[in-house]
Amino acid sequence: MGRLFLSILLVGILAGCSATRESSNASLLEAKVANMERAMAARDQQIEELRLELDRLTGSPQRSSASSSGGRGSVSDAKDKGTIRVSASPQDVQKALQKAGYYNGEVDGKIGRQTTEAIKQFQKDHELKVDGIVGRGTWAQMESYLKGQGVSDP
């Protein structure tokens, strides 16, 4: 009887250890994936900035995947302001910032001081380059709030 009890106890302990180890591995993998996604977003932003610099130096626009994706907004209009460097409208940027809890102004499509400061705070809190420019990396994270997938945590 005592041996049976010890056997059951041992099986229970081993099963618990195994479940804890699997949970720990899953958490570790999730953290690695999140870090890789942040690194990719930062690289995308760097690539977009280099493309824009090339455009400026050569005087001819380079078509990037962001500008040819068919999204709302005009890349050429955004380049004139220099703040939005992806195919997103100023209204979409303001709406995404609102949903993320960074902007409480009117969604008027005008990128003013309040919108720019909201962009910078969003970038800071999401460990992006803090430059007030909505490039591919910033927009990739911001857009998830617009689609309702982001988690507000300013």
Short précis:
The protein is mostly helical and 154 residues long. Helices cover 64% and strands 0% of the residues.
Describe the structure in your own words.
Helix 1 (2-58) crosses helix 5 and helix 3 crosses helix 5 (136-146). This protein starts with a helix and ends in an 8-residue tail after the last helix. With 154 residues, the protein is mostly helical. It has 5 helices and no strands.
Distance between the termini: 58 Å
Q: What Rg is obtained from the alpha carbons, in whole angstroms?
A: 23 Å
| CATH topology value | Muramoyl-pentapeptide Carboxypeptidase, domain 1
Pick out the low-confidence regions: 63-80
Helix content: 55-70%
CATH superfamily: PGBD-like superfamily/PGBD
Q: What would CATH call the architecture?
A: Orthogonal Bundle
SSE run: HHHHH
Could you give the topology of this structure?
Blueprint: H1 2-58, H2 75-81, H3 90-100, H4 113-125, H5 136-146
Helix pairs in contact: 1-5, 3-5
Label this structure with key terms.
single chain; 154 residues; mainly alpha; Muramoyl-pentapeptide Carboxypeptidase, domain 1; 5 helices
